[in-house]
UniProtKB/TrEMBL annotation:
Similarity comment text for this entry: Belongs to the class-III pyridoxal-phosphate-dependent aminotransferase family. BioA subfamily.
Record keyword DNA-binding present: no
Residue positions where N6-(pyridoxal phosphate)lysine is found in the record: K282
Cofactor: pyridoxal 5'-phosphate
Species of origin: Cryptosporangium minutisporangium
Record keywords: Aminotransferase, Biotin biosynthesis, Cytoplasm, Pyridoxal phosphate, S-adenosyl-L-methionine, Transferase
Gene label: bioA
Chief place where the protein resides: cytoplasm
Function: Catalyzes the transfer of the alpha-amino group from S-adenosyl-L-methionine (SAM) to 7-keto-8-aminopelargonic acid (KAPA) to form 7,8-diaminopelargonic acid (DAPA). It is the only aminotransferase known to utilize SAM as an amino donor.
Cited SUPFAM superfamilies: PLP-dependent transferases
Protein name per its UniProtKB record: Adenosylmethionine-8-amino-7-oxononanoate aminotransferase
CDD domains the record matches: OAT_like
Catalyzed chemical reaction(s): (8S)-8-amino-7-oxononanoate + S-adenosyl-L-methionine = S-adenosyl-4-methylsulfanyl-2-oxobutanoate + (7R,8S)-7,8-diammoniononanoate
Summary of subunit composition and partner proteins: Homodimer.
Record Gene3D superfamilies: Aspartate Aminotransferase, domain 1, Type I PLP-dependent aspartate aminotransferase-like (Major domain)
Length: 434
């Protein structure tokens, strides 16, 4: 039954929760005894407004995507302008200005020699496309035996089947599907500091299996949902060298790390190397719409020929227009200084957690702050604790982390106070034993 906008907005928090629990599956949750959810009715800047009137400072950028915060006038204007032109048109046999401009912009800002762009629906689908690109490239260039991938443990690449197959098979979220996923090769997770012995083992593993490897795929510098682990950029240079020597393609998943999150525009920039294939997403649209992209070198694109993939909503004009606006907004501002300032604030705010007996490690890189506990967190308890302090976070495993909007790095007292509030909530939640 149709519901007016006014009636929709007027639903009480309890009514929204009841209807939600009756009909909706949430991420990593079931319909039997689901975890409670908080109804959000609007968002602006770094704050979410709940149906009961409370406001929460969002410390997650809505899973790392809303780097400019919410309800941004520049992005709103881009969406409104494009909506007045066309919301969508198929990409098979057609093109349009937002897609052309976004592709040009992505090629301009990503490491050379990435020159071609394939648009996808989401980060997980972008990983699927990257994997298919590598497999089809090897097949099309006469190396049909190269059908496997190599990656490192503690990685996470998404929830679709190709992506699940390269996620950590032991400590990841997809062990239920182990029997039906392709069997790929896994090296140990990279140490935080450069270890020459580990690098030698990594090279030896690639060389030993080069005849069956289509590609090596990694999350550069930061392993995100697999454990929020940071590692030395030098390992990326090692991988680039061995892949060049063996004809194995190198794929970087920059979906979480791209667009300034680690302190450089792309994590690859910190290593001074470029992959053969790069997946980007999340912050690309500023959190407004779902969209991702896969960039390749000209040699890979020519080797593949016709890539056998074509999503219905590929290069959606509305998402592309907002992506262009989001990227320009980032590049036109002092984003490096802003992220550096945010990083300093996170270090200062999270430092007290280091003295807690419950805490195993505290680490910060760019606009990422992590408190790692000795024991798994009680997600419901930690969530309730931080919400009580006016903050929204999404802890997992033994981690309470923040990847806030870059607005919290601005040179204003309010921005500094927001970071302090997020950090204080994390420290307080970490201090309570489970």
């Amino acid at each position: 039954m149709a519901t007016s906008d006014d009636a929709y907005q007027a639903r009480s928090a309890d009514e929204l929760r009841t209807l939600d629990a009756a009909h909706i599956w949430h991420p990593y949750a079931g319909m039997v005894d689901p975890a409670p959810v908080l109804p959000v009715v609007s968002a602006s800047g770094v704050r979410l407004r709940l149906a009961d009137g409370r406001q929460l400072v969002d410390g997650t950028s809505s899973w790392w995507a809303a780097i400019h915060g919410y309800n941004h006038p520049v992005l709103n204007a881009a969406a409104t302008d494009q909506l007045g032109r066309m919301a969508h048109v198929m990409f098979g046999g057609l093109t349009h200005p937002p897609a052309v401009e976004l592709a040009r912009l992505l090629v301009e800002i990503t490491p050379a020699p990435l020159e071609t762009v394939f648009f996808a629906d989401s980060g997980s689908v972008a990983v699927e496309v990257a994997i298919k690109t590598a497999l089809q490239y090897q097949l099309s260039t006469g190396r049909s035996d190269r059908t496997r991938l190599l990656t490192v443990r503690s990685g996470y690449y998404g929830d679709t089947f190709g992506a699940m197959a390269v996620c950590d098979p032991v400590n990841g979220m997809h062990h239920l599907f182990a029997g039906v996923l392709p069997q790929h090769l896994f090296a140990p997770p990279p140490p935080a500091e450069f270890d020459a012995g580990y690098a030698d083992e990594l090279v030896a593993l690639v060389e030993r299996h080069a005849g069956e490897l289509a590609a090596v795929i990694v999350e550069p510098i930061v392993q995100n949902a697999g454990g929020m682990r940071f590692y030395d950029p030098a390992y990326l240079r090692v991988l680039r060298e061995v892949c060049d020597a063996t004809g194995v393609l190198l794929i970087f998943d920059e979906i979480a790390t791209g667009f300034g999150r680690t302190g450089t525009l792309f994590a690859a920039d910190a290593a001074g190397v470029s992959p053969d294939v790069m997946a980007v997403g999340k912050a690309m649209t500023g959190g407004y719409l779902t969209m991702a992209a896969v960039l390749t070198t000209r040699a890979v694109a020519q080797g593949v020929g016709t890539l056998m993939h074509g999503p219905t909503f590929m290069a959606n004009p509305l998402a592309a227009a907002v992506s262009v606006a989001s990227i320009r907004l980032l590049l036109d501002g002092p984003w490096r200084a802003t992220v550096a300032r945010l990083s300093d604030r996170l270090r200062t705010g999270l430092e007290p957690a280091r003295a807690l007996s419950t805490v195993a490690d505290v680490r910060v890189l760019g606009a990422i702050g992590v408190v790692e506990l000795h024991a798994p967190v009680d997600v419901a308890r930690v969530t309730a604790d931080v919400v009580e302090r006016g903050v929204w976070l999404r802890p997992f495993r033994n981690l309470i982390y923040t990847m806030p909007p870059y607005l919290m790095g601005e040179e204003t007292p309010g921005a500094a106070a927001d970071v302090a509030q997020v950090c204080a909530a994390i420290v307080a939640a970490a201090a309570r034993p489970e």
